[in-house]
UniProtKB/TrEMBL annotation:
Gene Ontology BP, a term: protein localization to membrane
Pfam families: EMP70
UniProtKB keywords: Golgi apparatus, Membrane, Signal, Transmembrane, Transmembrane helix
The organism of origin for this protein: Apteryx owenii
Name this protein carries in UniProt: Transmembrane 9 superfamily member
UniProt-annotated location(s): Golgi apparatus; Membrane
Subcellular location, principal: Golgi
Length: 624
């Protein structure tokens, strides 16, 4: 047990190696071919990935696409072979890439315009070798004294390499690539051929290459108004490295400052638990005083002067309006909660590494489908507690309400992506497969869980409900729902907004996110803060003699989703350079789905915390 605890703690430390369990290393011998494959073209300005051969790059004799998993397809990956000829420990310099020896390729006017457009949109080319992504080295000087700047440099890497660049109104294409591959020599017995493992891959698109037969050099200018003669070349350089295969992803995964994560975690823990401790002490002391007063045997006059949350005991468990919809939304929230908890925990253990492309998204999709049995169970039991009778309709609503909204929005966005001929568009067979998973796996499991949940004994409420509803007194302005949402959402959002920046960067700027140990702690803090703030808000509401807490608690508990939406708008305006309509539509469409899912998640957490609190306090007082 101690060993596993140490493993969990080590995953939170930035300097530890990122070991990928279940992925076997490939041992190369000298002169063995190392295949370089293309993944896609991406741009943070358009958010539209494209296939590698959507541009007129040199093609091999036979184009072979890798069979992608569900996550890779949804990410827009289209892994395909390339004509780069790379062999272990074999140096190459200024090799001509295409099948025309030392002869340039003629680009048509349409192809030249397309390349110029992609350069203007700031596209990156993503290649992989031995499942390692190509990275471009960036060097920039630290903010120190001018005399020290030349001595010390900070080195970082960006994923992929730039397709080209603009100089004024001129377009330049990076038609020459200098590959720098690092290998680690493995220990072998005597009289055996040494084996090598690829541990890092860099590309320098700024390298110069001039051949006697060539008509130009790299980078080469592209004139979009006419045909262009282009010569694609590449070089290969090998270097030995001390990095072991188990640690080869460290270079790619340490591109962000981990100290910021530590600061975020410490800040969130201190603030949340400090405020939670204060709120808990206030609530507990107030409740003890209330319960002691309510349980005293006073005379009739004192009893008539009672006020506070005890007065609404006959209405506090009165079923709300639209109980079927409420239970369905809470069932979807339970599905999301179970799915996110399992995914983050498994990823924290290193089982969903970036080297397993698409594994995280594939696991999340399948887990959401299978967690339908838990969502249906909780929704069915709550629906019966709320005096519902049409369990079949309730089960169908649980299985289709939230997934239907998600599928509808994604389908509309997918139509726009289809129109742009982007690889980010989900193919029709994949869409049919997702529908089959929805109606073939998730729907039956939701019905199964709903059936058993509806048959189970409903939640035991400690007090009976009166036949005639009690009149609700006029509420103060600060008891307004929108004010409650603003007040309740600050604390949970403040506990996670720094981590939210890295998540947004990973999604919208094609970065890796791997610090799932931090994310797991942030998730726990989020659960605690949502529960605490929900309990406080429902206590204030009941003290104001307003017993309509069912829907209000669910809405107010998800108040942090409103701040996530505001932050998403801020991120769009200040961090992204998106100006076109379709990329903006994609951003806000997918952001709406994220906000909706986050609202369901936090609303469900807060609702069940408040429900347990309400049942607990009314069970502690004597009701005549």
């Amino acid at each position: 047990m101690l060993r596993y605890l140490l493993v969990l703690l080590s995953l939170l430390h930035a300097t530890d190696s990122f070991y990928v369990p279940g992925v076997a290393p490939i041992n190369f011998h000298r002169n063995d071919p190392v295949e370089i494959k293309a993944v896609k073209l991406t741009s943070s300005r358009t958010q539209l990935p494209y296939e590698y051969y959507s541009l007129p790059f040199c093609q091999p004799t036979k184009i072979t696409y890798k069979a992608e998993n569900l996550g890779e397809v949804l990410r827009g990956d289209r892994i395909v072979n390339t004509p780069f000829q790379v062999s272990m420990s074999v140096e190459k310099k200024c090799e001509v890439l295409c099948n025309f020896p030392n002869k340039p390729v003629t680009l048509t006017v349409e192809q030249s315009k397309l390349i110029a457009e992609r350069i203007r949109e700031d596209y990156y080319v993503h290649l992989i070798a031995d499942n390692l992504p190509v990275a471009t080295r960036l060097e920039f000087y630290s903010n120190r004294e001018e005399e020290e700047k030349k001595k010390e440099k900070d080195v970082q890497f960006e994923h992929g390499y730039r397709l080209g660049f603009m100089d004024g109104n001129k377009f330049y294409l990076h038609n020459h690539l200098s590959f720098i591959l690092y290998y680690h020599r493995e220990d072998v017995e005597e009289n055996q051929e040494p084996t090598y493992r690829v541990v890092h891959l860099k590309a320098d698109e700024k390298g110069m290459c001039t051949l006697p037969e060539a008509t130009g050099s790299a980078p080469q200018e592209i004139d979009p108004s006419k045909e262009n003669q282009m010569l694609f070349t590449y070089s290969v350089h090998w270097e030995e490295s001390d990095i072991k295969w188990a640690s080869r992803w460290d270079t790619y995964l340490t591109m962000s400052d981990v100290q910021i994560h530590w600061f975020s975690i410490i800040n969130s823990v201190v603030v949340v638990f400090f405020l939670s401790g204060i709120l808990s002490m206030i609530i507990i002391r107030t409740l003890r005083k209330d319960i002691a007063n309510y349980n005293k045997e006073d005379d009739i006059e004192d009893t008539m002067e009672e006020s506070g949350w005890k007065l609404v005991h006959g209405d506090v468990f009165r079923p709300p309006q639209y109980p079927m919809i409420l239970s369905s939304l809470l069932g979807s929230g339970i599905q999301l909660f179970c799915m996110i908890l399992i995914v983050i925990f498994v990823a924290m253990l290193g089982m969903l590494s970036p080297s397993s492309r698409g594994a995280l998204m594939t696991t999340a999709c399948f887990l959401f489908m299978f967690m339908g049995v838990f969502g249906g169970f909780f929704a069915g039991r709550l629906y019966r507690t709320l005096k519902g009778h049409r369990w079949k309709k309730g089960a169908f609503c649980t299985a289709t309400l939230y997934p239907g909204v998600v599928f509808g929005i994604c389908f509309v966005l997918n139509c726009f992506i289809w129109g742009k001929h982007s690889s980010g568009a989900v193919p029709f067979p994949t869409m049919v497969a997702l529908l089959c998973m929805w109606f073939g796996i998730s729907l039956p499991l939701v019905y199964l869980g709903y059936y058993f949940g509806f048959r189970k004994q409903p939640y035991d409420n400690p007090v009976r409900t009166n036949q005639i509803p009690r009149q609700i007194p006029e509420q103060r302005w600060y008891m307004n729902k929108f004010v409650g949402i603003l007040m309740a959402g600050i604390l949970p959002f403040g506990a996670m907004f720094i981590e939210l920046f890295f998540i947004f960067s990973a999604i919208w700027e094609n970065q890796f996110y791997y610090l799932f140990g931090f994310l797991f702690l942030v998730f726990i803090i989020l659960v605690v803060s949502c529960s605490q703030i929900s309990i406080v808000m429902v206590y204030f509401q009941l003290c104001a003699e307003d017993y309509r807490w069912w829907w209000r608690t669910f809405l107010v508990s998800g108040g942090s989703a409103f701040y996530v939406l505001i932050y998403a708008i801020f991120y769009f305006v200040n961090k992204l350079d998106i100006v076109e309509f379709i990329p903006s539509l994609l951003y806000f469409g997918y952001t709406a789905l994220m906000v909706l899912s986050f609202w369901l998640l936090t609303g469900t957490i807060g609702f069940y915390a408040a429900y347990m609190f309400v049942r607990k306090i009314y069970a502690a007082v004597k009701i005549d």
